[in-house]
Amino acid sequence: MRRKLTQRGRDRRQQLMDCAAELFAERGYHPTAVADIVDRLGVGKGVFYWYFSSKEELLVEILRSSHHDLRRRQQVAIGDEPDPIVRIELGIRASMTWFREHRHFFNLFQFAATEERFAAVLRSNEQVAIADTVRHIKDAIVEGRIADQDPEVVAQAVVGVVEQLTRAYFFERDEPDERVANAAVSFCLRGLTG
Asked: Is the Cβ–Cβ distance between 70 and 92 less than 8 Å?
């Protein structure tokens, strides 16, 4: 459900999303009721249903919005960098820092991957991440900085490395993001450039 919202309405909607993301990460999606979300914010259920038709719609919007936020972080980090290899490095570092700062979103992504009803938004998010990475890889191939190979396969590998290291070192071991980002960059770039 899309309504034209005032700034106050956009702020309230974001408060609902932030609160729900925290509760879903703490308690799980299924055990968290709409009543838990509105109780934590101190508002009535009518406020929730003004912005979202269901808890499912809310989680879809959280997944979509968090991915947009991650992508904005990557774009800001990359800026106008002309070197495609440096752009890949900056994107990896920005991604890992974002995930470290937003650990609860990673938990939500993992949960959503187990539910078919959230598959479409996750696929869309992944396709955008792959397409962004492919663009930089193609530029590096054209410049002769990366061997001529299937850019989508290489992009899947880069995104997979970042996701796996994020899971293993931030969420399972709580390691510092700089050390893990350095390892991801080193592995990905040396694999790309030989």
From this structure: no
Distance, in Å, from the CA atom of 100 to the CA atom of 174, rounded to the nearest integer, reads 9
Q: What is the CATH number of the domain that holds 6?
A: 1.10.10.60
The count of domains in the chain is 2
- What pLDDT was estimated at residue 193? 62
Contacts of 152 (CB under 8 A, 6+ apart): 130, 134
CA atoms of 145 and 192, how far apart (whole Å): 8
12 and 51 in contact (C-beta within 8 Å)?
Answer: yes
Residues 19 and 110 in one domain: no
> Same domain, yes or no, for 41 and 68?
no
Q: Is 174 within the bounds of a domain?
A: yes
Question: Are residues 146 and 174 located together in one domain of the fold?
Answer: yes
3-class secondary structure for 63-96? HHHHHHHHHHHHHHHHCCCCCHHHHHHHHHHHHH
Record the pTM: 0.86
Task: State pLDDT tens for residues 84-105.
Answer: 999 999 999 999 999 888 888 8
Cβ(177)–Cβ(96) below 8 Å: yes
By C-alpha distance, which of 27, 191, 180 is closest to 111?
27
What token pair was written down for 88?
Answer: 């890949």
